[in-house]
Structures are given as structure tokens and as C-alpha cells.
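Dear colleague,

As promised, here are the two records you asked about, laid out in our usual form so they can be pasted straight into your sheet.

NAME FIELD: protein one
SEQUENCE, THEN STRUCTURE:
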Amino acid sequence: MQTTTKEQIIEIGAEIIHQKGYNHTGIQEILNAANVPKGSFYNYFKSKEDFGLQVIDYFTAHYNQMVLETLADTSMAPLDRIHRFLTEFINYFRSQGCTGGCPIGNLAQEMGDLSPKFSLKLKASIDLMVDTYARILAEAQKDGDISESLDAKETAYFIVAGWHGAIIQMKLTKDLVPLETHRKFIFNNILKT
């Protein structure tokens, strides 16, 4: 399927924002990279903020696609899916030289307390991550793989928050140890029967 000009601007803009941040990315830079004239930007977006909000939607949709490919694979046990998902991300960050981080986490740090619209959209995206983990943890409880005394939603929040913290450390140290420690701690100490 052919990519529309708007989709091309969002996709290229998302890549640049992921590398440089929202505030350090200019509209002209995005349009130059997308090979689109400046006037076209305002045919698709009301403002840079509107564009940024649509970039969050793009990142969220990308995350959903990864979830469908890994976490929704019911041929695997729930905890195996979580382990595989975290491992795939660790391998991804290895291939990126421990750079980039989570685009939603990056934007939450940069814009979360500067723009109420960004804050709401980013919270919805992180809540989606939490809800995904909570559903899988509930499956694991039903299967008897983890304790029913765990609050699935609370545990999911902890996993997502811990993962984002580990990503921050990874970016600072340029080392995968924080991500590997997070995964090990989750499975050895929290997700036990």
C-alpha cells in the first residue's frame, strides 16, 4: 500500500523526534527529510503540537503492532510471552548501541509536564502498555503460573515503570545490564508462584 504524504511526514518526523526530541526537532527539518514543501505541513496539521500528538498516535500504533506479534501469541504461556517480549527489546537496543530509548518514555520526560494535551495522550499510551501486561498477568494467574495474591494491574504498572527506568539507565551507561537486571528481577522475585 502506498504511503500518503501525511503518513510520510509523520513517519519521518517520528524518527527524527525519537533521535533528537520534540523540542529539538524543527518542522523544516522534517519537511526537508520527507522532501515535502513547507506549505504542505499545514494542509495536514494545525500546528506543531497537533503534529506531535499524531506522532504519539503513530508510536502507540507501532507498539500495538509489536504487542500483537509477541504478547498476543497464545501458543506460548503468558510468562514466556512477557520474557520473549522483553528479550526482543533487549536485542533491539543491543542492535541500536543502547541508544534511542522508548519514544513514549522520552516524550513523557520531555513534554509530560509542559503540555496538558501531550500529558493526556502520553498517559493513554502508557496505560495501554500497562493494560496489556495486566491482561497477560491475569492469564498467568488463571493458569496458576503466578500467585493470585498479586494485583495484576499494580504489578503491570511496576513492570512498565521499572522498564522505563531501566531504559534511562541503559541510555546513560550505554550498557544492557539495567534491562537484563530488570528482566531477571521481574521473573526471579515478582512473577513467581
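NAME FIELD: protein two
SEQUENCE, THEN STRUCTURE:
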Amino acid sequence: MSSLRDLARLARSTPIHPQWLLGRRRVPTSLTRAKGTVLDVGAADRWIAPHLDRDVRYVALDYPATGHQFYAARPDIFADACALPVADGVVDGVVCLEVLEHVPDPEKAMREIARVLRPGGCAWISMPFLYPVHNEPFDFQRYTPYGLRRDAERAGLEVVQLHRSGHALRAAGLMTCLAIAGGVENCRQFARILLLPLALLMICLVNLVCWALAAGWPDWPNAAMGHHVELRKPVLRSAPAG
């Protein structure tokens, strides 16, 4: 592991970290009110579980090829998001945060989410937008909000709400900081040692300037760190007797 990554790990909550503008992981507000059985697809270290109601039956699922290697996954089930080992219509909620970019067929994964949901059940899905390739070779796509809406509607799910994360200037700052850090990491060790102090100074400066500007500068909706969508499986109403 590079010296830049070692130092960044120690300074994760400070402006010298290249992902400082990304902020902490956030749980969708309405997810904290979920009831019944909640399936977490791409659960990683089960970080969602403590935010759920104590009566919720939480089931964590992750993919073996990436779960162990990248996310210290501790799932109840190892499986593929495109072939969920769950019966039709038995889950009250599905969580799938920052996962679909790693799925070779995200439209099929969306259909699987729709299949396992009960009528009236909800799904919370997110995907990064302006973010570098990561966890290669398991990084396949980025979606606009229109792409997320398209796949959801094709799967028969209703969009309850769809929003973007991150001010456009923060998104630009995040990409700039990661580009600085990535360039240094890609150097030979001698050049990396020479460039590291300058990289930290540049990252800190970009982080603070973009953070300050985003507090007052008008936002631009065409650029975002990511997109989040809450979906609902429609309840089929039987036709009245004639």
C-alpha cells in the first residue's frame, strides 16, 4: 500500500484526505422507518443494520468475488445480485447502495429487486456518478438519474423520489483531489516520496476552496457525486365485481 494511502487512512476526517468532500456514509431517511424483512444487497460490513428498527429482520447479502477482497463483507448470504436466492414477493425492503456500478447487468439486478419485493415494498438504490474507476475489474458503469429511472420503470417499480448527492463544486473538487492522489500513487516510489508533500498541500487547498465555494455558489444540477432513488413496488388492485 502506498504512503499516500497510509497517511490518508489516518487523516480520513481532515481536509488532507482526497475523499474529504464525500463526507460520511448516509442512510436514506425513509429507510430508518422500514418494517418487516429488509434485504441488503451489497451489505459489506453491515453498516446499515444499526440504523434500522430493532424489530426489522435484516438479511445481509454480498458477492464473494468483491465482498471479501474490497469490503470486509460479513453477509448472511453470498450471492449474485442478478440471481437473488430469495422467493418471489417475500421481502418488505431492499437496500442496494453503491452496488449497481459493480454489476455486469444492472437492469437484470433491478428486475431481481422488483421480483423479491412484496407489493407495496420499497427499495433504496444509489450509484456514484462523478467518481473514478474503482475495485477494478469490477466497475462497469455510471448512470444519470434518467438511466436509474429507466431501469426502475422497466422492472415495474415506481419512483417515489430521486435526488442527487453533492454540490457540483464539491463533486468537481472530489474528482480533482482523487486525480492528484491517483497520480502520485501511480508514480515510482522515489517520485512518490518527492511529490507527497505537494500532493497533500494541493488536496487540502482544493478541498477547502471547494467546500467554501459550495456554501454560497449556485449549484449546477448536471454534475453530482451520485444519485439516490427510492422505489416502490405497486400494489395490484383487483377490478370491482361487475
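A couple of things worth noting about protein two: DSSP finds six helices and seven strands in the chain. The radius of gyration is 20 Å.

Best,
R.
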